[in-house]
TrEMBL record:
Residues 7-305 form the D-isomer specific 2-hydroxyacid dehydrogenase catalytic domain. Keywords: NAD, NADP, Oxidoreductase. Pfam families: 2-Hacid_dh, 2-Hacid_dh_C. GO terms for molecular function: glyoxylate reductase (NADPH) activity; hydroxypyruvate reductase [NAD(P)H] activity; NAD binding. Belongs to the D-isomer specific 2-hydroxyacid dehydrogenase family. Coiled coil: none annotated. CDD domains: HPPR. Residues 102-274 form the D-isomer specific 2-hydroxyacid dehydrogenase NAD-binding domain. This is 2-hydroxyacid dehydrogenase. PANTHER family: 2-HYDROXYACID DEHYDROGENASE YGL185C-RELATED (PTHR10996:SF178), 2-HYDROXYACID DEHYDROGENASE-RELATED (PTHR10996). GO terms for cellular component: cytosol. It comes from the Bacteria.
Length: 321
């Protein structure tokens, strides 16, 4: 484990013996060089960059068990080409992130944080908070209709919102209108929720053109990765009122948030807390542990990512360890 993870993850893996807590070493580089020849598994969070050069330091590496659904900090394609497995933690955080997305939709459209600041500052004594915008008659566009996207759609339908989506291709059995591009989706919705994976393929997918298409009554919600949105273009669109507002849980260079965003009153900002409840983070951590325990038993991984499918054996040996 290169850097600290949740205490329950550290405790569970430490109890299995053989856990190297690299961050506790007085000389991490020297400790890494010492243990690398024998390491078969890595337990990592999204704050650890696991590229090909890093994985190549471990000749016996067979699995990278990652905390989180997104795994753009891991070169999964490199791993897959070499018979390594990468696992993530899908499913267990879908509802929490979907709740956060809808919370941002409500908070942004109805301006609830600004209304609370109005009250706390004592300004209610001087006059009512201005009337807000509404969800009535709006269409919610979902950029990335995976498990979390579908959970968002389910919640949004309960609020009476029409739903549209964009992804790599139309999905069978989905009752929502499909749009072939992010630009086309933005042209046909009032609230654009970004919940697509990060990485090179989706870098700046939401650019100045998409924001312009969203329009002056449009709201952008990002609960995916900061890299998916061109942050400079978003700031310009907000400052010029090209769009109405934004609700953001993720940023381009976390935990750094541009002062220009902090200065805007029609933006709701959260410190990447989409899945940050005790219940959900414990479930995510347990899945990290269970994937490594499956590897130790020589059993199939529970949640391999698409780039590293299970082929019936681990790289070095199919037997128990």
């Amino acid at each position: 484990m290169p850097k600290p993870m949740a205490p329950k993850v550290v405790e569970a893996l430490g109890g299995d013996a053989g856990l190297v807590k690299l961050w506790e070493s007085a000389d991490p580089d020297a400790e890494l060089a010492r243990v690398a020849p024998e390491v078969g598994a890595l337990a990592v969070g999204g704050h650890v960059k696991v590229d090909g050069a890093f994985m190549a330091r471990f000749p016996k590496l067979e699995i990278v068990s990652s905390f989180g659904v997104g795994y753009d900090s891991i070169d999964a394609a490199w791993a897959g080409e070499r018979g390594l497995l990468v696992t993530n933690t899908p499913g267990v955080l879908d509802d929490e992130v979907a709740d956060t997305a809808m919370g941002l939709v409500l908070a942004t459209v109805r301006q609830f944080p600004a209304a609370e600041r109005h009250l706390r500052a004592g300004r209610w004594l001087d006059g009512a908070f201005p009337l807000s915008h509404t969800l009535r008659g709006r269409t919610l566009g979902i950029l990335g209709l995976g498990r979390i996207g579908k959970a968002i759609a389910h919640r949004a339908e309960a609020f009476g919102l029409a739903i549209a989506y964009h992804g790599r291709r139309p999905q069978d059995g989905v009752p929502f209108r499909y749009h072939a591009t992010a630009l086309e989706l933005a042209e046909n919705c009032d609230i654009l929720v970004v919940i697509t994976p990060g990485g090179a393929e989706t870098h700046h997918l939401v650019d100045a053109a998409v924001l312009k298409a969203l329009g002056p009554s449009g709201i952008l919600i990002n609960v995916a990765r900061g890299s998916v949105v061109d942050e400079a273009a978003l700031i310009a669109a907000l400052q010029s009122k090209t769009i109405l507002g934004a609700g953001l849980d993720v940023f381009a260079e976390e935990p750094k948030v541009p002062q220009a965003l902090l200065d805007l009153d029609h933006v709701v900002l959260l410190p990447h807390v989409g899945s940050a409840s005790h219940h959900t983070r414990d479930a995510m951590g347990q899945l990290v542990v269970d994937n490594i325990r499956s590897w130790r038993a020589g059993a199939p991984p529970l949640t391999p990512v698409v780039e590293t499918p299970w082929r019936g054996a681990y790289k070095g040996s199919a037997g128990p360890r």
